[in-house]
């Protein structure tokens, strides 16, 4: 029996929210170590990622590690003029953050701090669920699919998923607009996908 995307999304979100604070902290630190190794091997200088929300794998240890290494960190922001799209703004310790209409913290708009996706080396994406083929299910808004649609043609930015191990499912139903990920970092491994 096939289960709907909505049901699958609810099940996986519940699984990650059920993790204890201790598990969340441990998993975030383990994933950070794997991510830093990959980022170092790839020579990444500019990287976008997200601030964890809704039980997502916490990115703060990774953000701190990136800052310590002098790697430029960017956060997504809902595009002010192009609904359904993202822009990326520099994120530093003193960057002002505001809640967007979805209740997610994002940088205050400052055009001088903006980077287009192809100006980044890597984008670490949030996700709700993934499978062994690198298929990714987000929250359903399509923001990252639209943002990363041209990465294979441009060669940048490399999209990398970041998730708890409990977010892996055997198979994800996919649509033609879904952008598969070449790799997904979890606390225990790097899953090579598309």
Automatic annotation (TrEMBL):
Cofactor (UniProt): Mg(2+)
E.C. code: 6.3.3.2
Stored InterPro entries: FTHF_cligase (IPR002698), FTHF_cligase-like_sf (IPR024185), NagB/RpiA_transferase-like (IPR037171)
Source organism of the structure: Shewanella algidipiscicola
UniProt protein name: 5-formyltetrahydrofolate cyclo-ligase
Reaction equations catalysed: (6S)-5-formyl-5,6,7,8-tetrahydrofolate + ATP = (6R)-5,10-methenyltetrahydrofolate + ADP + phosphate
Keywords per UniProt: ATP-binding, Magnesium, Metal-binding, Nucleotide-binding
Record family assignment: Belongs to the 5-formyltetrahydrofolate cyclo-ligase family.
Gene3D superfamilies tied to this protein: NagB/RpiA/CoA transferase-like
């Amino acid at each position: 029996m096939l289960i709907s995307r909505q049901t699958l999304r609810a099940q996986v979100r519940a699984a990650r929210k059920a993790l204890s604070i201790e598990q969340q902290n441990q998993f975030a630190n383990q994933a950070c170590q794997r991510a830093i190794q990959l980022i170092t091997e790839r020579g990444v200088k500019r990287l976008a990622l997200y601030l964890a929300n809704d039980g997502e794998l916490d990115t703060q240890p990774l953000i701190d590690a990136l800052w310590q290494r002098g790697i430029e960190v960017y956060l997504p922001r809902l595009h002010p003029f192009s609904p359904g799209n993202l822009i990326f703004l520099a994120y530093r310790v003193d960057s002002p953050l505001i809640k967007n209409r979805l209740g997610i913290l994002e940088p205050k708009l400052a055009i001088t701090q903006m980077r287009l996706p192809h100006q980044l080396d890597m984008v670490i994406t949030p996700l709700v669920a993934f499978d062994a083929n690198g298929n990714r299910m987000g929250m359903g808004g399509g923001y990252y699919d639209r943002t990363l649609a041209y990465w294979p043609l441009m060669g940048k930015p490399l999209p990398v998923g970041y998730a708890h191990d409990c977010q892996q499912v055997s198979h994800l139903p996919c649509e033609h607009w879904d952008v598969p990920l070449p790799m997904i970092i979890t606390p225990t491994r790097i899953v090579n996908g598309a």
